[in-house]
Amino acid sequence: MKTDYREVNFDGLVGPTHNYAGLALGNVASMSHGGLVANPREAALQGLAKMKALMEAGYPQGVLPPQQRPDLGALRALGFAGSDERVLARAAGEAPQILRAVCSASSMWTANAATLTPSRDASDRRLHVTPANLQSSFHRFLEPATTARVLAAIFRDPAHFAHHPALPATPAFSDEGAANHTRLCADHGEPGVHLYVYGRQAFGWESEASVAPKRYPARQTLEASQAVARQHGLGELQTVFAQQHPDAIDAGVFHNDVIAVGNGPVLLYHELAFLDEPGTLDELRNKLTAPLIPVRVPAEAVSLADAVSSYLFNSQLLSNPDGSMTLVVPGECQENESVWRTLQDHLLAGHNPIGDVVVQDVKQSMRNGGGPACLRLRVVLSSGERAALAGHALLDDALYAELVAWVERHYRDRLAPEDLADPQLAAESLAALDELSRLLEIGSVYPFQMAGA
Q1: What residues in the chain have per-residue pLDDT under 50?
Q2: Could you give all domains of the chain from N- to C-terminal order, each with its CATH number?
Q3: Among residues 356, 44, 115, 93, which one has the least CA distance to residue 257?
Q4: What are the catalytic residues?
Q5: Residue 388 burial (CB < 10 Å; 0-12/13-18/19+)?
Q6: What is the pLDDT of residue 366?
Q7: Which of 53, 125, 1 is nearest to 326 (CA)?
Q8: pTM flag (> 0.85)
Q9: For residue 165, what is the DSSP state?
Q10: Residue 323 contacts by C-beta under 8 Å, 6 or more apart in sequence?
Q11: Which helix or strand (DSSP H or E) is residue 437 part of?
Q12: If 0-12 CB within 10 Å is exposed, 13-18 middle and 19+ buried, where does residue 93 land?
């Protein structure tokens, strides 16, 4: 039955090295806040508070652990030799930007972790998982191997879950995960159509040079999106490939989830989300088994600049039992007059299922360019698949209390870029992650744990 399937949001825990290094070209918030002092403890607690609020509202909620940081193995691979202390000191002195990259807590934005196809849409009736290669930036390129181990540890049963390798880490197959993928359907348990949004075409792109972004790089390729769809066995009638508008990319819309969000048959999007807006909507209408409900926000109501600064579209759109939907927005939406007015007058007062707007404070994440939607990986699971999950990754009151206590034991309340060279920070992080893997019951997923096996 269709009600057997439910969407579970797996949020990434913010890591102990959460900092503002300004690493992400094209991410306006990350670039503008580079060098500020961060508060890892507050960031982690804000993320957990969002998870708990949604859990208490009746939305199933999962947890994914952060990466091992600093990544001393990556530094050693780049020629920094000696003890951990020596490696950190040399990197800080000779290549501080590389040190900042290997300390990045960017895995908190799990919308980039992978692309998933629910078993409802797969011919073998298994959930299919492909970790994103994230090759467009060094600090994120370090993530896929651990991400794959974490996902394999939680979605472990091969009778229910199929895991695929990340795509080749080359510019032609640049894959940024579910941040550029939206599944639209009548209901989570009904057949879905998968909307893949790409920024550029790797082969034959020269003929489309006039529609390429001019200021910031386009991260997702058409070829990567097509390859993931092939891995998951999706056919032509199940997929739509749409190009992101280059003007949006140049305004700081580095992923589609910064300019559009979909849920069920609803697609909430800015008028400059897609290069071919009419063609994209027509193809979705032709392939969906239910009427598409497009909710278009015009540029005259919300400019691209306001969309990026408020992260209106990087919100969570969630289904309710009565058929209505709730939109979870960051606090910055409430602070922007045109965005807040649009939410009240255009969305809530419009002819669409969005009946409630909930504001969540995720400021620590927002300053690095990640809103509520960045922090979660959407996974549609049947009741049997939920029962087959390994470990203790589904949030409940007991796990929430344990995770809050864990954060308060291990996390600093102040972290400046110069603190990243502190060898004590590295030791603190490893101790925290070792304890976390036991709390979540996921086994040895980190390089330091496997090295000591």
Answers
A1: 1-2, 24-31, 33, 208
A2: 2-69+104-451 (3.75.10.20)
A3: 115
A4: 176, 255, 374
A5: middle
A6: 83
A7: 53
A8: yes
A9: P
A10: 353
A11: helix 423-440
A12: exposed
Beta strands in 189-299 (DSSP E): 192-198, 239-243, 260-263, 266-270, 293-297
DSSP-derived letter for residue 120 is G
What does the DSSP assignment read for 203-231? SSGGGGGGGS-SSS----BHHHHHHHHHH
Helix (H) or strand (E) holding 382: strand 376-382
User: Which pLDDT score, from 0 to 100, does residue 212 have?
Assistant: 83
DSSP H/E element including 357: strand 354-360
Q: Could you check whether the bond before residue 168 is cis, i.e. omega within 30 degrees of 0?
A: no
| Residues 342 and 226: beta-carbon distance below 8 Å | no
CA distances to 86, 315, 431, 433 from 72, in Å: 11, 34, 15, 15
How many Å apart are CA 141 and CA 132, to the nearest integer?
9
pLDDT in the model for residue 367: 78
- C-alpha distances (whole Å) from 408 to each of 2, 302, 343 are 41, 39, 35
Instruction: Give 75-121 pLDDT, tens digit per residue.
Output: 999 999 999 999 999 999 999 999 999 999 999 999 999 999 999 99
Tell me if 384 sits within 8 A of 160, measured CB to CB.
yes
pLDDT at 108: 92
**What was the pLDDT predicted at 22?**
57
Q: Are 21 and 399 in contact (CB under 8 A)?
A: no
Q: How far is CA 333 from CA 263, 309, 340, in A?
A: 20, 9, 6
Residue with tokens 């949604």: 54
Handedness of CA 227, 232, 238, 242 (dihedral sign): negative
Within 293-375, residue ranges assigned H as helices are 304-310, 331-335, 337-342, 363-366
- Residue 300 burial (CB count, 10 A): 8
